[in-house]
């Protein structure tokens, strides 16, 4: 007899769908089916069942050969590495729960590490912009219940956040939006004709990297001031049209992704997108929201915030928390050769950092805590396999609108497998011993 | 657990009516006991020092989503104030929005042991609890906001107080909340459309109910539930010239109403940060103090309590569930603006603010906060707050005490204002020569707040049987003359005992204590209609499922402490 576990939270993307149902075998060991999730979410659950999954820590020797080691050895190596380093980089944190993040922060405090999360290569620019100009935003339910004007700027939810449009932004019928998508106007700004763009009422196919200009033009148009014939490849009339569409809405939401955060102008793009949102509030109600990628990158920023006061790239090496993007950010540290050990948990810099950074990781003492084999585990000295958070371990995660949701454990991890938090707890204990603190 | 005897101190305790007498305080098993009950105590010599119960803060914003927005979007707030890790202390920083560690340590250094988070958006209850869990030392609880909640609006529109009460009981339990908070009733829902309710009779768009009906209905539900605390109101029209009339209209809604509870609470409503609600005039040019009219009402109606919301003349970070107000503020000062509208429940905004001594209005605001306290006839009903961090950071309480206890100190500050004469003529402060006593201060910061919270069986006094939360200050009321000593001593407790444990010793934090998280479990008769309504709303309008809404005590709370109430009768 299989049993169905309901209200399961998907630990994949920032949409953090919490309505999944998972069918597990009677002994609670095997996931048989995943309902309601999109393909990527489903895959995350099923992947935990891979038969060839690594369950024992592996360490590279001098010649580069991988050997199995015990968990005790893994704890010892990690603790020694962190304690011996002058300035270890502790990177990742976006695919684990807040409890593990919290433990990691305590270790970082004791060893004088730098804690950085994946925002450093995605929405870090957004966080900087928020520090410049703030952010008028809302929860996703406000979008569902009120919003009649939706803008997707530089993002492609059809692929990256597959259930976003059906759960929150375009299709659902909410309290004041009984007609669902029929009463919503959808605008997409993207240089490519993405699957999201194809669904839009209006696709502004902007010239690559010219977001700032178009956002600026929209601000001008909203005020009714004159515009040149085209801006960023978009005809004046279209811009004026979009401005009118937004102004005439009852509740406008702008969602934006890495297409704007990591293109030319970076945080300045977001500054002006927020300024546009502010302007719209003089005419109607408007909000703006980053499409956060990893399911708990938002949580990492939150926990860092309440513990240290900054949302990413927090440098604890001087005995107090210091925050200086461009200096205390992972890639800047790696490429300047400023860190002497690398600890990775809950992300895959090997796949996403520039090759120059990855090469640096490969040269340093390094640990990767990670259930999968990834490009990062391949270059680290120690691969510590752990349970899948959100599948084999519960804990808190924050959705892209900062709403915290408690993820659920649906199956047991393979025998003897520690969770991120348990592993970090053991490292913390050992670090305390080495450092001689109570 | 260790036994302690705090000897020879000058004790101030309005509950026991001890006014500066030398009384020994004995501690055993985490509680205050009679001195005869202890055998082998560690003696703490408090000769020449002031002894009070641990401070109880009724209203501060110290944990939760908007607080963390304040932290994360103001790196500049951490300049020059970071303290490194030391002993049991984690590294800690931040001025107007300190990190959770700094919050715990700073309060402890002021001799405070209990702090209530004044506004918790229910959907973000988990976040609020996570921050409270990580805040060392302090006993805490959080007030979920109800004044713009769709369930409440709909039930009260239909005069279904019983259903509203059943829903409140459910929400308090689900979010592990402590009391009913009301912020800009109706106005924050209107803000969902960019609108507001500026008076207590402005109808809420779509919901067809007025702020007055919301507040009155919630009071009825609160009393029906027999909750320890009363409704906790931040009324409409905050921060606008001429708003004292709205405030009085709000007060009058409750005239003659009687409390119903077993916790010794005597008020039916608490009005918070009244300073922001006491303005006369009709524009910023002619704004003036109406503290006298406000306090006249408060003094004559003993079924209400209030706190001050004193402006401390600092740069700070304002944050409130009054979404439209924060938008108004950002239009005024053009500083960065954060806002979050929360589905079915509330909204919140955050804007930095500088209360400059060079700005006339700031001077007037500063004066009004103090006037309210100086005009209060019953210090057991009027409490010191800064609405942290809205009017100033909480660690300025000792400075506020200095101003309240010394006319010289007030006048010195008044003289230092750029527009001193204009402030004098728009306010009453210079004409008030009252200087509050330590006995009154003890009422305004512990005895009164504990009572208003329905927690006088735990906190606020040194009565045997209460929690052994005791603060010892290096302040000799017989010899101290310089008002600066007040600020210094009350910002640096010599000793703090929390639940019978020494947390601060000779001014240093030596323990992270054993904090409790308080919440109220009010039992009501089963109500299938409300259960059905909740299920339906979650299915159709919320974006989390009902099963994923409840706060899991094991994961999110440190030492949950349940206060039970039986409202089934
Ligand atoms: S949209 Fe994101 S959170 Fe939802 S099921 Fe797909 S991967 Fe999971």
From TrEMBL, chain A:
Q: Which residues form the Molybdopterin oxidoreductase domain?
A: 53-415
Q: Which InterPro entries match?
A: Formylmethanofuran_DH_bsu (IPR016457), Mopterin_OxRdtase (IPR006656), Prok_molybdopt-oxidoreductase (IPR050123)
Which keywords annotate this record?
Oxidoreductase
The entry's cellular-component GO terms read: membrane
BP terms from Gene Ontology? methanogenesis; respiratory electron transport chain
- Record carries keyword Electron transport: no
Query: Which GO terms fall under molecular function for this chain's record?
Result: formylmethanofuran dehydrogenase activity; NADH dehydrogenase activity
Please tell me whether the keyword DNA damage is annotated for this protein.
no
Question: This protein is called what?
Answer: Formylmethanofuran dehydrogenase subunit B
Automatic annotation (TrEMBL), chain B:
Task: Name the InterPro entries for this protein.
Answer: Amidohydro_3, Formylmethanofuran_DH_asu, Metal-dep_hydrolase_composite, Metal_Hydrolase, Metallo-dep_Hydrolases_sf
As one GO molecular function, the record gives: hydrolase activity, acting on carbon-nitrogen (but not peptide) bonds
Domain Amidohydrolase: where?
43-508
Q: Which PANTHER family match?
A: COLLAPSIN RESPONSE MEDIATOR PROTEIN, HYDRANTOINASE/DIHYDROPYRIMIDINASE FAMILY MEMBER
Could you tell me what this protein is called? Answer: Formylmethanofuran dehydrogenase subunit A
Q: Which organism is it from?
A: Methanofollis formosanus
């Amino acid at each position: 007899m299989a049993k169905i576990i309901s209200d399961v939270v998907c630990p994949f993307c920032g949409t953090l769908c919490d309505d999944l149902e998972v069918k597990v075998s009677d002994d609670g060991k095997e996931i048989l089916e995943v309902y309601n999730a999109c393909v990527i979410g489903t895959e995350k659950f099923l992947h935990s069942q891979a038969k060839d999954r690594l369950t024992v820590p592996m360490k590279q020797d001098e010649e580069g050969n991988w050997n199995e080691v015990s968990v005790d050895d893994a704890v010892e190596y990690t603790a020694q590495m962190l304690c011996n380093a002058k300035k270890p980089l502790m990177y990742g944190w976006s695919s684990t729960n807040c409890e593990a993040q919290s433990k990691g922060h305590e270790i970082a405090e004791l060893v004088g590490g730098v804690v950085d999360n994946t925002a450093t290569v995605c929405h870090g620019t957004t966080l900087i912009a928020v520090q410049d100009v703030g952010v008028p935003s809302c929860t996703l339910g406000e979008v569902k219940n009120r919003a009649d004007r939706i803008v997707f700027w530089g993002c492609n939810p059809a692929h990256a956040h597959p259930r976003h449009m059906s759960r929150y932004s375009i299709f659902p019928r909410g309290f004041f939006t009984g007609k669902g998508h029929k009463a919503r106007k959808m605008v997409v700004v993207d240089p490519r004709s993405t699957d999201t763009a194809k669904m839009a009422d209006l696709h502004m196919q902007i010239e690559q990297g010219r977001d700032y200009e178009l956002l600026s033009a929209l601000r001008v148009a909203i005020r009714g001031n004159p515009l040149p014939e085209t801006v960023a490849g978009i005809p004046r009339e279209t811009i004026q049209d979009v401005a009118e569409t937004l102004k005439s809405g009852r509740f406008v939401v702008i969602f934006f992704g890495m297409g704007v955060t990591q293109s030319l102008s970076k945080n300045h793009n977001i500054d002006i997108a927020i300024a546009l949102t502010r302007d719209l509030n003089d005419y109607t109600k408007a909000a703006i929201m980053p499409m956060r990628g990893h399911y708990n990158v938002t949580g990492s920023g939150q926990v860092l915030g309440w513990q240290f006061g900054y949302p990413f790239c927090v440098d604890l090496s001087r005995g107090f928390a210091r925050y200086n993007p461009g200096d205390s950010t992972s890639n800047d540290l790696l490429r300047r050769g400023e860190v002497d050990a690398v600890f990775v948990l809950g992300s895959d810099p090997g796949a996403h950092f520039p090759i120059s950074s990855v090469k640096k990781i490969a040269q340093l003492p390094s640990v990767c805590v990670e259930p999968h084999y990834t490009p990062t585990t391949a270059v680290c000295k120690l691969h510590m396999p752990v349970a899948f958070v959100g599948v084999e371990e519960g804990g808190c995660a924050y959705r892209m609108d900062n709403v915290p949701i408690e993820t659920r454990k649906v199956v047991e991890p393979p025998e003897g497998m520690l969770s991120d938090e348990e592993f970090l707890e053991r490292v913390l204990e050992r670090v305390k011993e080495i450092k001689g603190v109570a | 657990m260790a036994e302690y005897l705090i000897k020879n101190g000058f004790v101030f305790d309005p509950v026991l009516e001890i006014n500066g007498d030398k009384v020994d305080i004995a501690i055993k098993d985490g509680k205050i006991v009679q001195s005869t009950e202890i055998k082998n105590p560690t003696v703490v010599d408090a000769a020449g020092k002031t002894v009070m119960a641990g401070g109880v803060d009724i209203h501060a914003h110290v944990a939760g989503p908007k607080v963390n927005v304040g932290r994360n979007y103001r790196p500049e707030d951490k300049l020059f104030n970071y303290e490194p890790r030391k002993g049991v202390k984690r590294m800690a920083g931040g001025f107007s929005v300190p990190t959770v560690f700094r919050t715990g340590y700073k309060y402890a250094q002021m001799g405070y042991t209990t702090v209530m988070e004044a506004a918790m958006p229910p959907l973000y209850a988990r976040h609020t609890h996570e921050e409270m869990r990580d805040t060392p030392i302090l006993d805490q609880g959080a007030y979920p906001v109800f004044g713009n909640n769709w369930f409440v609006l709909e039930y009260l529109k239909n005069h279904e107080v019983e259903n509203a009460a059943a829903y409140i009981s459910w929400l308090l339990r689900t979010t592990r909340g402590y009391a009913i908070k009301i912020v800009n009733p109706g106005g924050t829902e209107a803000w969902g459309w960019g609108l507001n309710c500026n008076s207590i009779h402005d109808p809420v768009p779509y919901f067809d109910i007025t702020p007055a009906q919301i507040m009155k209905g919630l009071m009825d539900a609160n009393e029906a539930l027999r909750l320890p605390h009363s409704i906790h109101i931040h009324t409409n029209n905050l921060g606008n010239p001429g708003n004292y009339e709205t405030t009085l209209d709000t007060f009058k809604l409750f005239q003659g109403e009687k409390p119903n509870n077993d916790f010794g609470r005597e008020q039916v409503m608490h009005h918070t940060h009244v300073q922001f609600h006491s303005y006369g005039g009709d524009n910023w040019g002619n704004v003036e103090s109406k503290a006298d009219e406000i306090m006249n009402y408060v003094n004559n109606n003993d079924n209400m309590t209030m706190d001050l919301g004193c402006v401390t003349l600092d740069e700070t970070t304002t944050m409130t569930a009054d979404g439209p107000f924060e938008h108004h503020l950002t239009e005024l000062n053009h500083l960065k603006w954060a806002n979050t509208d929360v589905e079915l429940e509330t909204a919140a905004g955050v804007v930095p603010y500088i209360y400059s001594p060079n700005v006339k209005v700031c001077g007037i605001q500063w004066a009004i906060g103090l006037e309210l306290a100086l005009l209060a006839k019953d210090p057991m009903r009027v409490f010191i707050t800064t609405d942290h961090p809205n009017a100033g950071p909480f660690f300025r309480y000792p400075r506020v005490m200095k101003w309240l206890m010394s006319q010289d100190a007030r006048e010195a500050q008044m003289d230092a204002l750029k527009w001193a004469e204009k402030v004098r003529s728009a306010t009453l402060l210079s004409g008030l020569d009252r200087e509050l006593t330590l006995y009154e201060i003890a009422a305004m910061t512990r005895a009164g707040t504990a009572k208003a919270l329905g927690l006088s069986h735990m906190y606020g006094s040194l009565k045997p049987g209460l929690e052994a939360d005791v603060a010892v200050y290096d302040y000799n009321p017989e010899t101290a003359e310089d008002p600066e000593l007040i600020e210094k001593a009350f910002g640096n407790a010599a000793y703090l005992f929390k639940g019978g444990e020494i947390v601060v010793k000779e001014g240093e934090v030596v323990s992270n204590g054993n904090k409790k998280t308080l919440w109220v479990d009010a039992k009501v008769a089963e109500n299938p209609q409300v259960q059905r309504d909740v299920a339906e709303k979650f299915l159709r309008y919320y974006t989390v499922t009902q099963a994923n809404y409840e706060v899991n005590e094991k994961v999110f709370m440190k030492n949950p402490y349940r206060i039970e109430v039986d409202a089934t009768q």
